[in-house]
Amino acid sequence: METRRDIFQAIADPTRRAIISLIALQAMTPNALAEHFNSSRQAVSKHIKILTECELVKQEQQGREIYYLLDIEKMKEIDKWLNQFRKIWETQFNQLDKVLSTLKKQRK
C-alpha cells in the first residue's frame, strides 16, 4: 500500500490519537472502537482508514472480523522526530537542575 497521507497530519486529529491509544493496548474491531466515541461507526471507520493509509494501523482478518492494531515500527518515525526536541528540553532541564543545586548549596 502506498502511503497517501503524512503521518503527522494523521496524528493531528484528537480522535485519531485516541484510536491509536486504544489499539496500542489491544487489537480492536471497528465496532469495539466506535463504542468509545460519540460518533457513528462510519465516522470512526474514516479515521481508521486515514490511519491505515499512513501505515500507523495494520489490519488482521480473524474469521469474519477485522481487527486493527498499531504498527509500532511506524510510531518510531514519530518518536525519531520528537527525539530531537526531547534532547533540547532535557538539556535545558539539566542546566536548570544544576543552577538550582548551586543556589541551594550557597544558601547553606
UniProtKB/TrEMBL annotation:
It comes from the Bacteria. One of its GO terms (molecular function) is DNA-binding transcription factor activity. It holds the Pfam family HTH_20. InterPro entries: ArsR-like_HTH, HTH_ArsR_DNA-bd_dom, HTH_MetalResp_TranReg, WH-like_DNA-bd_sf, WH_DNA-bd_sf. Keywords: DNA-binding, Transcription, Transcription regulation. Residues 1-90 form the HTH arsR-type domain. SUPFAM superfamilies: Winged helix' DNA-binding domain. NCBIfam families: HTH_metalloreg. This is ArsR family transcriptional regulator. It comes from Paraflavitalea soli.
